[in-house]
User: What shape does this take?
Amino acid sequence: MTPPPLLAITALTRTFGALSALAGVSLSVTPKTRHAVIGPNGAGKTTLFNVITGQVPPSAGHVLFEGRLVTGLSPHAVARRGISRSFQRTNLFPKLTVLENLRLAAAADGRGSWSLFGRVDRLRAPFERATETAEAIGLRDRLPATAGTLSYGEQRQLEVGVALATRPKLLLLDEPTAGMSPEETQRMTRMLEGLPREVTLLIIEHDMDVVGSLADRVTVLHYGEVLTEGTFDHVKRDPRVYEVYLGSA
Amino acid sequence: MIVRWVAVAALIVGAAVFPAFAGKYPVKLLQEILIWGIFAMSLDLLMGYAGMVSLGHSAFFGVGGYVAALALLKSPGVASGLLLPAAAAALAALVIGYFSIRVSGVYFIMLTLAFSQMFYAVTFQAAWLGAEDGIVGVPRLNALGLDTAKPLAFHLYLVVLIAVGALALFRIVRSPFGRVLRGIHENEARMEAVGYAVDRYKLLAFVIAGTVAGVAGSLYTQFVGSITPDAFLWTTSGEALLMVIIGGTGTLAGSMLGAAAFILLQSLVSSYTERWMLILGLTFILLVLFAPGGVVGALRGRVGIRS
Amino acid sequence: MPFLLDLFAQALNGLSYGVLLFLLSVGLTLIFGMLDVVNLAHGSFYMLGAYAGLTLIAASGSFWLALAVAPLVVGVIGVLIERSCLRPLYWRGPLDQVLLTFGLIYLFEDLVKWIWGGRIRSIPPPDLFSGSVTLWGATVPSYRMFVIAFGLVMAMVLWLLIERTRLGAIIRAGVFDSEMAAGMGINVDRVFTGVFAFGAGLAGLSGVIAGPIQSAQPPMGATILVPALIVVVVGGLGSLKGSLVGSLIIGQAETFGKAWLPGASMLIIYLVMALVLLLRPQGLFGRALK
Assistant: This one.
């Protein structure tokens, strides 16, 4: 008996003029699992994330999170519901320290941020959460460094960290290993494997090794539609998937 | 840390006792610097910390100034000199901010400019507000045993009020709220994505900045004894903007320095030549081309001060 | 029907004022919308055009000579400004550009005051158009009709330039992509300078034409800047069509405002701009934001 889905996407469509970025995508994510979304470039993967997180409204269809409708909510409201997201192109606070990057994310849901005359160091919880997150992403000793001075791989780790620091129920990762060397990719994969199971993952990835290591379930998107879905082994053996990737090479 | 507090205290005390060993004109200059300085600081909160560049900040300066003028003519109490102007400016900032924050970048600049020019248009043509000549003969505050018609009393009242305002701004900038503003300035989209209701924070910053600007405006009215529509001109906002940039955006203290630089330069040059506008303009141009980061930035580079 | 005649006369006034705004705003929309440069001193070019015109008329006695030469003079000044002051600031962002161009406003206004004095200087219209003409019962200065006709011609010339030339194609694309342009074999630096000088020259042209209507005085640059900015915002940054429509709207709004609601005339154009920004922030013909 599978538990009710954490995220339930039904017939999600998003058109930009004549272009259909998403053409009726339906997808369910089971809680505490790791679910990968793969597909060639232009398949609509990032658009899917953009619609889920409220950055872009859908043209049709809806998204339910924990049984409640999230389509139409603004990005910050979606985040408050417990969905957090990392970006394909690193999207940090470059002039702030690693600690501050994480602390800001950790403090997002607290009332403390409205304090005009209080002192930041009096609010312990965000600091603690930030340090914990730094530990989880392997940047504990880089806390005082300015985000902009980090190496590319470290920045990608921090990118995930910022999303993680909000203690989400569902973590959307958009190509976390994009542009990484093999060593950095290994490190990232181990980091993601080490994340607590309470955090459900939905990952867009191009690197099949990463998908193979992490994913409990894989959805293949092609031209905005779901081509097939199943375990990684199942999907790997589907001739259509092979064709789709080969055809776009 | 202690050094900083001692330095700040010394500055405040120095400003307070300045009339003891300086003539009337330098004292007036200091008072003008303090008023424009706090006005510029409030703009820096908006620009340097929240990242909202506004060319309409004079709207709140003018609202504070006019409300103070009208109120002080009726009754020279604290409500007239301080509370009503602040409240009026806060309300104006709430309304203008609510509409302006929907857009950003150059459109935000334009919309805020439009709002302040609207105030100019209304006051310029309204007979009951004195039209082009504005409101004159405004009495000084006289309340709680303090008669600011006396020069020394006024000076202390001014210094204390502005010191409190400046310290409040410094505190706000270091508060959790201030950190959020900085995050918004650095990466607004990520702040949204992480769960901050960015527009609400921006609105509060706008209202705070507007309220302080309103207090500056009311102090200006009390300083000069009158107020004209020129307070609302976009060039008034522009001058405050210059002061912030000269001193260094996002430093708060820089704005006070920038106000001092601007006003001293203006006063100095105009005492030697009628061509002070030309020299001022040239100075800005050279400053931008050869000293980016403003005065504070240049000082920081030279002395290696870290904030 | 005196009311209709009055309406007609006012509309003609609004049209001629609209032409001034049009010429001014085309330059502004190109510089602002295409080059992404904040040039608060654009009004100064207008002022310099008026004063250059004043001097050329005084020296040569010919309005037409002034009309031809003054814009060129202002254009050259534009080139000098762009090369020396603005070029280092392109990658420094809008704040530094604001400070610098604000400094230019002060500089030019005082320079003009120094050379020509602070009082208002009237500029006589050319002999050809110094009388008045009666059109369907309404009597208007013939100079205004000239301005309107001139505006029409300029609009067509600009349209041809934008629609029929390669440079115009780039401008029409809306965003000046330096990389793409360089890839097309275009000297980006020269295009920037050229567009800036062109915009400045148009502003100067507007200033010369405005002379006989508005006279010349040092604050005229800072004063006309706001209506011009409003036209650009209402019409849409970077859009020539927007400048035309915007200047017609604002020209009429301000003129009729002065005639019918003198107590609120100044307020009207700001209300128009605020309304447009709230309902359609990109302007009537601007590119959609985000």
